[in-house]
C-alpha cells in the first residue's frame, strides 16, 4: 500500500511547477525535499499514519489542480494596493531591480525613503 502512496507523491512532485526565480524558497522544491525525507526507502517505506499521509496528499493535489481558485474566483487581479499579479511575482522573486522606473509603486518609494544611510540623516546637536 505504501508503494502506491509513494508513486502518487512522485507523480504530484512531477506535476508541481517550479519557480526558477525563487531559488531556495520555492514550494515545489520544498515539497520534493519533504517527499524524499518522508519516503527514504522508496516504495518500501513504512508509513506511520497512513490516514494522515492520504489527507496530506489530497490537500496538496487540490492545491495543485487549482480547486480553490476555481471555487472562489477573484473579482479583480489586483490587491488592495493596486499591484498587479505580474508585479507581485516580480517583487516576491527578489528581483526588485527589474521593475521599471516609471512604474514605481508605493513599496519602492518607501524602500528608497527608508534605505538612506545614517550619514544622510542630520545629527542632533549634543545637549548641554
TrEMBL record:
<dbReference type="GO" id="GO:0042645">
    <property type="term" value="C:mitochondrial nucleoid"/>
</dbReference>
<keyword id="KW-0809">Transit peptide</keyword>
<keyword id="KW-1135">Mitochondrion nucleoid</keyword>
<dbReference type="GO" id="GO:0034551">
    <property type="term" value="P:mitochondrial respiratory chain complex III assembly"/>
</dbReference>
<dbReference type="InterPro" id="IPR037698">
    <property type="entry name" value="UQCC2"/>
</dbReference>
<dbReference type="Pfam" id="PF20180">
    <property type="entry name" value="UQCC2_CBP6"/>
</dbReference>
<keyword id="KW-0496">Mitochondrion</keyword>
<protein>
    <recommendedName>
        <fullName>Mitochondrial nucleoid factor 1</fullName>
    </recommendedName>
</protein>
